[in-house]
Every structure is written in structure tokens, then in C-alpha cells.
Amino acid sequence: MTTPRDVVVTGLGATTPLGGDVASTWRAALAGESGARTFDNDWSVKYGIPVEFGATIKVAPDEVLPRPEIKRMDPSTQYAMIAAREAWADAGSPEVDGDRLGTVVSSGIGGIWTTLDAWDTLREKGARRVLPMTVPMLMPNSATAFVSLELGARAGAHALVSACASGAEAIGYGLEMIRSGRADIVVCGGTEATIHPMPIAAFAASRTLSLRNDDPAGASRPYDTARDGFVIGEGSGIVVLEAAEHAAARGARVYAKIAGVGLTADGYHITSPEPTGDGQRRAMAAALAESGVTAKEVVHVNAHATSTVVGDLIEARSIRGVLGDDADHVALSATKSMTGHLLGGAGALETIFTVLAVHDRQAPPTINVSDPDPELVLDLVRDTPRALPEGDIAAINNSFGFGGHNVALVVTNA
Amino acid sequence: MAYTENEVLAGLAEIVAEETGLPADTVTSEKSFTDDLDIDSLSMMTIVTHAEDKFGVTIPDDDVKNLATVGDAVSFITNAQA
């Protein structure tokens, strides 16, 4: 039996509610800043939407991208393109045969701004005014396709969709593309741009959003007793995954290793997580098994923890269930307390946080937890970062999505 | 009120500039959409859609393929105005 190829992270890129790149985002996260703010619009008055805030993108794409790209790409693709360019440059713009380069860029929802704008145009002006770029802009594979075009990536351009687990699933698939020998480098991650009145009204209708309109920065509070739902966010995170031997041959800087992925489904309910957390445990266990990492080595978990009443605790119990007593030495971080929930971008941004936590030996904080839920059976990193131990360490990034999708990624030091 | 040929050229140049990122003053009458401005069929149809909206004309698909240069399009739009 041959050893599976080691896969390392050689580039990171992001545009988020905390910053227009990885450095500013990570700095803000370590400082415990919130990216949530009151909307600068009249949606609440005009449409009666009960939620008046969200974690909007910090740096508008039209400050970064040329005008023709803004016109040809849905905002979700614009975010992904910004993040992908940063990640690619961060990786040193590696020279690689396009046939050995892949992309996996996912979105949970896709080009919804484009979809709804085109529908408005159709109703107001008729079919002849609907723009020819509408379909390539709204299709959920648009971001991965544009990134693939940009880089000349021809090993495959994929867009796995699993709601709020999409970004992590994309990275898991990138890992498998390299392990299976299909590619040497894969640019992968997730993106989302759904801060539009319709999806916000729809999420509000499902009673999953926080209604803390008077305190946007304090609204996302995973594991706090007063949590009342998630805060919608937007943005993108992209990582460059590379076969370890390929990275070594070109002398690339390596942040960390993606050691394994676990993917399961609850098969239980279209939105509610299965109450015992069985699917989540199986995902984490599979990721650890693929990684060859023992529970003892796991020192940090970036939780999916969206700040919903039910979901947060199911996950905490699942982590305890998988790690047993070794969960006692896990520094648990719930970074959605700062970023809000980037939906299809979340799993990718949180993988970046997990990679940087392992690389910098520093777990980011969880903010807004003034009264921890007494049922939380784990050690939550609150308010300020916490140092992680020296030596060989491992961390888990969990991402779960509507539909019962569970993805766990294991990150180890390089 | 109909647009003059110069007004159509200026308006069309702005639309082309938005689509391509080229400076509007480089979009001149003799330029070929495909050879000089590197406009593919999808971009051409986007420009046509915007031009129809701006100038209140209809440019049938069968006529679009005869519009080789910016000047061809300016003439067509100018003449198509009611």
C-alpha cells in the first residue's frame, strides 16, 4: 500500500466582513473585532424585514476590481476572484502545467443578485433587456469557472454545493483531487454574496437569524446563553492546496498540512441537525482516521457554531463524543462571533483561520460570550487569543449545512 | 427627439468602454468590434442590449452580424431612430 500524497497549504486569500485580505482579516479576528453592522439601506422599512444588520463585506469589490469585471461577475464571483488572486500571489504564482491545476470554488446559494436583478429587468422592461451574461453570472459554478479561466486551470473546475458546508467541502474535494493524482495544485474555497433583501427575508422566515437590531456587534454570540440566531455575512476564502513534494520542489512557503477530510450526511431533516450529532461525530472521526491523527494531538477546533440555540450545543457534544477526555485540552473557537456567517464562504474562511491558528500557534477568540451556556462541555477561547502548544499539533475545522451535510477537515503543522 | 450621429457615437463609446474597460475616446468609428476591440459575441450582444435601452431602438439579431465597425453601429442606430 502506498502512502497517500501529503497535501499542504501554500497560499491564502480572503475578502471578508473583517478585511479586504487575509492579513487584515486575521489581525481583526485576533483583536476580537466584529464585522457586523447596521445595514445602510431601507429594506426593513420598505419590505418589513425584521433584521436590520449583517456582516457586510469590509472592502467593496469595485474598489479592487476593474469595471468590466464588476459588470461580468455576480458579487459572489467578484469576492471569489479577489480572494483567489490574493491566494495565488501568496503562493508565489507557481508555474504549473494547467493540466495539473484544478479549481474547486463553491457557493451555498450562487449568483442570487444576478438572478433577482434579471427577474426585475424582465418584469420591468421585457425580455430584450435581459443581459446576455445573465446565465454565466448566475450559475453556481460561475466562481470556479472564472477562477479556472483566470489561472488556465484545466485539471477540472468544480463547485460542490452543500449549503453552509460548501466552502469546506470544496477544500475537501481539492484534497482528494491531489491525493488521487488528478492535480498537483488546486485552488479551492467558498464564496457567498446573499446580503440582498429576498434571502434575508427568507432566512428570517425560517427563524434562524438573530434579531438583535440594537446591538449588531453583539448579535453573533455562539455558546452564550442569550444567543438568538446567526448573523448573515458575506465574502470569500480561498486556499491554494499543493502536493507536498510539488511545494518542496519549488521551495514554496508552507502554512500547514490538510491531513484529512470527513464527509457525512445526517439523513434526518432538511434544516435541523440530527440531535445526537451522530453525523457530525462520524465526519470528525473519518477526518481523524484519514489523517492518522489521534485525539490526543488535537489542540484546537474551529467550531461551525453559528449562534443558534440548538446547533451550537449539538456540535459541542459531538466534539466531546469524538475526542472523549482529550477534548479537555482543546481550545474551542467560534469565529462566526466576529465574521458572521458567510454561508458558502464560511467553511473556507474558517479553514484559513484554522491553518493560521496552527501556523501561528494561536487560537482566535470567541467574542460576545458574557454568560457561557452551562451545557457547554468544552473550553471556549473567549475575548483574547490563546497560545497553542509547540510540537506536533492538529486542529479540526467543522462545517455543517442545511440539508444535513457535515464536513470536518483536519489541519496539522507542516 | 432623435440623437445625432455624434451623440450616438459618444453614447455607444461609453457603453463599449463599460463592457471592455477601454478608454471611451479610443472607441472610434473605424474600429472593428472583433479585430480592434476584441469583443466576443456575448459582449457584442451585451452592448446591443445596452444600446437598445439607451437609444430606444431595436437592433435585430440578423442586423447585428453586419455591424463590423463602431461606425456601422452608429449609422444603424442613427437611422433606426423613429
TrEMBL record, chain A:
It holds the Pfam family Ketoacyl-synt_C. Its EC number is 2.3.1.179. Keywords: Acyltransferase, Fatty acid biosynthesis, Fatty acid metabolism, Lipid biosynthesis, Lipid metabolism, Transferase. Pathway: Lipid metabolism; fatty acid biosynthesis. Residues 4-413 form the Ketosynthase family 3 (KS3) domain. SMART domains: PKS_KS. It catalyses: (9Z)-hexadecenoyl-[ACP] + malonyl-[ACP] + H(+) = 3-oxo-(11Z)-octadecenoyl-[ACP] + holo-[ACP] + CO2; a fatty acyl-[ACP] + malonyl-[ACP] + H(+) = a 3-oxoacyl-[ACP] + holo-[ACP] + CO2. Coiled coil: none annotated. It is an enzyme of class 2 (transferase). InterPro entries: 3-oxoacyl-ACP_synth-2, Beta-ketoacyl_synthase, Ketoacyl_synth_C, Ketoacyl_synth_N, PKS_Beta-ketoAc_synthase_dom, Thiolase-like. Involved in the type II fatty acid elongation cycle. Catalyzes the elongation of a wide range of acyl-ACP by the addition of two carbons from malonyl-ACP to an acyl acceptor. Can efficiently catalyze the conversion of palmitoleoyl-ACP (cis-hexadec-9-enoyl-ACP) to cis-vaccenoyl-ACP (cis-octadec-11-enoyl-ACP), an essential step in the thermal regulation of fatty acid composition. Belongs to the thiolase-like superfamily. Beta-ketoacyl-ACP synthases family. This is 3-oxoacyl-[acyl-carrier-protein] synthase 2. It comes from Flavimobilis rhizosphaerae.
TrEMBL record, chain B:
Pfam families: PP-binding. Residues 3-81 form the Carrier domain. It comes from the Bacteria. It is found in: Cytoplasm. 4'-phosphopantetheine is transferred from CoA to a specific serine of apo-ACP by AcpS. This modification is essential for activity because fatty acids are bound in thioester linkage to the sulfhydryl of the prosthetic group. Keywords: Cytoplasm, Fatty acid biosynthesis, Fatty acid metabolism, Lipid biosynthesis, Lipid metabolism, Phosphopantetheine, Phosphoprotein. Its main location: cytoplasm. Pathway: Lipid metabolism; fatty acid biosynthesis. InterPro entries: ACP, ACP-like_sf, PP-bd_ACP. The modification O-(pantetheine 4'-phosphoryl)serine is found at S41. Carrier of the growing fatty acid chain in fatty acid biosynthesis. Belongs to the acyl carrier protein (ACP) family. This is Acyl carrier protein. It comes from Flavimobilis rhizosphaerae.
